[in-house]
What does this fold into?
Amino acid sequence: MALDEDPVGQLASFRLAAASVVIGNGAKLWITGGFDEHFFGLDTSEMISLTVLAFDGKVAVESQVSADLPFPVAYHCLELVFGGNDAALLFGGMDMFIQQPEKAAWLAIINGNEVSWIESQPMTLARSSHMCGAVRYSFGKSRVIVAAGGMLHGRRITPTVELLEIQDGDDLATIAIAAQWQSGPNIPISLCCAGAATTQDQGRRFSWNSNNHC
It folds into this structure.
């Protein structure tokens, strides 16, 4: 199906440097944080639903305001915890209130348009504008969330990587309390704002677009 190039809707709020994740078996896009046209940090989020209209094949977009975030944040990451639809991890980013990178991580429990937050173990470094993704070990029994590169305090760009391993079967409370970030091997060059990171090889490899390095 070819999508119409005409606008089909709009967000509830103007957002730049937000983070998003697909939930609801692909039916919804959850967009979090960012900053507005006046460069004020946002602590809000919204759910975007896409519906293909049967009578003409066009796409209708509905945006609904969702949960407030723990703090106003931009240039952050958001990843599904299990590859399912009921939990996501928000980690790092620029705290727009104090204008400094954050190492905080928060677990979001998603129930429809409602979201509740559990404070989780922080990353080892405060970083923003980092690349992120989630990969599986070859045997598929654990999922590893990756934070790579980004900007540290003092606008220093880093090649460092850290990993959060989540075992299949772990409950959300265990993940929030017990799962610890660990250092991983550095990427070849210091990068931030490096575009989309992707997983390949059935989710076992992590790669990124390195054309843009700050």
User: Anything to note?
Assistant: The chain has one helix and 17 strands. The radius of gyration is 17 Å. Confidence is low (pLDDT under 50) at residues 200-204.
